[in-house]
Amino acid sequence: MMYYSTNRKAPQATLEKAIVKGLAEDRGLYMPERINQLPKEFFDDIASLTFQDVAYNVASAFFGEDIDLDALYDIVRSTLSFDCPLVRVTDDIYSLELFHGPTLAFKDVGARFMARMLGYFRSEQQINVLVATSGDTGSAVANGFLGVPGIHVYVLYPKGKVSPIQECQFTTLGGNITAVEVEGVFDDCQRLVKSAFMDEELNRRMHLTSANSINVARFLPQAFYYFWAYAQAVRMGLDGRRIVVSVPSGNFGNLCSALFGVRMGLPVRRFIAANNANDVFYNYLQTGCYEPRPSVQTIANAMDVGDPSNFARILELYGRDHDAICQHISGASYSDAQIAETMRQCLSESGYILDPHGACGYRALQEQLQPNEIGIFLETAHPAKFKELVDKVLGIEIPVPDRLAAFMQSTKQSTPMSADFNDFRAFLLAQ
Ligand SMILES: *Cc1c(COP(=O)(O)O)cnc(C)c1O
Q1: Alpha helices for 214-352 (secondary structure H)
Q2: Residue 100 belongs to domain with CATH number
Q3: Which residues line ligand 1 (CB under 6 A)?
C-alpha cells in the first residue's frame, strides 16, 4: 500500500518510508491510498475475540500488505500487554479506560506500536527520534522505545513546566533514552526539534525522525481500542448501532484514528470532539472557517493545542465537505471551571473519578446524548497523573498506583540545554 501526502506535492511513499520519515517532503501528512473494509464475519464474531486478536485484524487491514504477518502479530501482541476495559459509569454512559498501560495514558498504545514498527523497518544505521513534550507524549514515547535496538530517543521538555510525575517518567530510564531539559517553554522545545529536522547536515549524519501523532505508525493503531470498545459493548448486550463516542481532543490523532475505523466498517453512530478552551475545531464546526490560534493553558493541558495537526487528515477523509463532517461529528468546548465542576459532579453522582481530559468527554455526552443512544467517552489518562489538581478539585487524596509511584523512586538524569538551536545542534553532533 502506498501513502500520499495531504499537500499532494510530495511523491507517494511506502509504509517504511512514511514511518521512518514521519512527515512528507512537502510538510504534508501521510494518508494511506486505500482504507480496507473488514469483512462482515469479523463483526459477527467480534464479541468472542481477545483484544489482541481484534487489534491484529485491524492492523492487518492497514499494514498487512507491507509487513510479514507473523511479525505484525508479535508487534500487536507485545504492544497490547494491558487491557482497555469498558466500564459503566451511569445508565447510558460508559468509560473506555485507556490508562492501564506503562505510563497510564492512551499514548502508550501508539508509542509502543510505533517503536516496534520502527524497530522492524530499521536499516543498518541507528535512527534518532526527537520528541518535544509538555508531558504525556515524552513519557509514552520514552517508555515505548526503551530498549529497542538501533533507536535512540531524545526527549526535549521545558524546565519546571512538566509535573513531577511526568518528569520522572522520562528522566529516570537511562539506556537509549536521553532527557534534555530546555531552559524555556514548550514552544522552544518544539522549535529546537523542528530546526533540527530542517538542518541538512544533522539529518545526513543522524537519521532523525519524529514520534508525534503525525506518524502513521503512531496514530493508526489507536483505532484498535475503538473496535475493542465495540466488542465489549456487544458482550455486555448493548446495541452497537446506538453507540456515540466522545473523544477528548487536542491534536486530533485519537479521533482521526476512530474515523479510519468507521471507514473500515466500525458501526459507531456518531462522534463528539470534546475540547477544552482551545476550541478551533469547535469553531470550525459552527462556522466552516478554520482559524488556528496560539494555544491557551488549561487544566486539561494535554489538549492545549491551537492548530491541531491531524485536522488536515479529517478534511481529507471527508473530501473537505463541511456538511459531511458536521453530520458525523459534533463539538463541545469547556472552560476550566466547567471541567472541575464536571469532575465533582461525576464523583458525587456515580463515584467515578475523572481526570480533567476525560471530564470533557463525559460532559459532552451528558449534554448531547439522545434518549435512545449509548455514550462511550475515552478516559485518556489516569487521574493520579494529575494528582495535585485532582486532589484539589475533588478534596480527596487520590492513591497513586504502584507503577506510577515506581517511577518516582529512581534517580533523575537529564542534560541541561539553552533554548539556542546552535547549542542543541552542537550537542547532537557530539553524540
Ligand atoms: C494527548 C492527549 C489527549 C489528546 O489526544 P489527541 O490525539 O492529541 O487529540 C487527550 N488526553 C490526554 C490525557 C492526552 O495525553
Answers
A1: 216-219, 224-235, 253-263, 280-287, 311-317, 322-328, 336-350
A2: 3.40.50.1100
A3: 105, 107, 136, 213, 248-254, 302-303, 357, 380-381
